[in-house]
Amino acid sequence: MAWFIMARKPAKYNTQITLAMENSEYSKITPVTEIEAFIAAQKDKTISVAFHDFETGKQILIKADKPYHPASTFKVHVMMEVFRQAQEGVLSLDDCILIINSFTSIADGSKYSLDVNDDAEQTLYPRSGESESIRELTRLMIVRSSNLATNILLEKVGTHNVNDFIQALGIEGVIVRRGVEDNAAFRLGMNNSATARGLTQTMQMIAEGKVVSTQASEKMIEILLGQEFNESIPALLPNSVKVAHKTGWTNDVYHDTGIIYAEREDRKPYVLSIMTKGFAEDQGSAAHQCMANISRLIFEQIQ
After folding, report:
1. pLDDT at 255
2. 8 lies in a domain?
3. Based on the domain organization, do 88 and 235 belong to the same domain?
4. C-beta of residue 182 within 8 angstroms of C-beta of residue 106
């Protein structure tokens, strides 16, 4: 399933949208498009888009370098480090580790626990003191966005190792400093960060089979295809379109990033990341609908 196309790091432009073709420099700049007009209509919202089409080489970059709180999208990078350490023999995906709900803040070394009511995946909490495989914890972290699985895995693989691997891969604008709900660190501004460009670079590398190994990348895609929260990028696409993706939302940020496998088997996939800020917590449906419409507009452009 992985695609082996050499990735280019795109040049940065001040224009909002840049279309890049494989066989030339950035050859066309479109100051107003249907996508840009749609985004402009979302009042008091900040929206970033980074799109890369493996079929044509075209890219769409809208505020692609603006940093956001990544919410749960950084869990993709935790998964990548899990697979890296498995490849290196540091751990096995079939190793079982203890389910705990006590973690150490990077701010001051104090202990904190996660609130089950703030977690989309709640089956692990009553199993505290039992064990679960790293493979299953990784799956739950992605497909159900388990915060508890994420922090357990971070304790195992090391947050600094996650960030070091991101930097080693040359992914731009993504920084992982801490786990979920480390409020002491949050108050001091010690937060994770991501850009739409960085998330798209991440998914490009996975799609190309360049993260850890071809086999590992394919396993990660398989997990991402199992995503259970499909209100955004996949929502308005035909049912035959497969989307390997990871959502994330917290407070007033809502994001989705993924690899989209179009209906035609002979067509190469494309990668899309959408990041938003300004939709209130009680406007989740509007945020998802906004991202779904951007995804639909892009899908219609490439047909």
Report:
1. 98
2. no
3. no
4. yes
What was the pLDDT predicted at 63? 97
Structure tokens belonging to residue 58: 């075209």
For residue 75, report the phi and psi dihedrals to the nearest 5 degrees: -65, -25
Is the pLDDT assigned to residue 5 strictly greater than 80? no
- pLDDT tens digits for 16-43? 334 433 332 332 333 458 999 999 999 9
> Residue 106, Cβ neighbours under 10 Å: how many?
16
In a shared domain, residues 161 and 208 = no
Name the β-bridge partners of 255: 248, 275
Do the domain assignments include residue 125? yes
Q: How many domains does the chain have?
A: 2
Residues 152 and 218 in one domain: no
DSSP 3-28: ------PPPP-SSS-EE--TTSSS-E
**247-292: per-residue pLDDT in tens?**
999 999 999 999 999 888 889 999 999 999 999 989 999 999 999 9
> Is 189 part of any domain?
no
CATH label of the domain that carries residue 54: 3.40.710.10
> For residue 265, which amino acid is it?
E
| Residue 247, φ and ψ in degrees, nearest 5 | -90, 170
Please classify residue 287 by burial: count the beta carbons closer than 10 Å to its beta carbon, then call 0-12 exposed, 13-18 middle and 19+ buried: buried
The span from the CA of 182 to the CA of 69, in Å, is 14
Note down the domain range covering 77. Answer: 72-167
C-alpha to C-alpha distance for 107 and 181, rounded to whole angstroms: 12
221 plus 248 within the same structural domain: yes
Q: Are 107 and 161 found together in one domain?
A: yes
d(CA 208, CA 216): 11
Give tens-digit pLDDT for 216-226: 999 999 999 99
Q: Quick one: 76 and 162 in the same domain?
A: yes
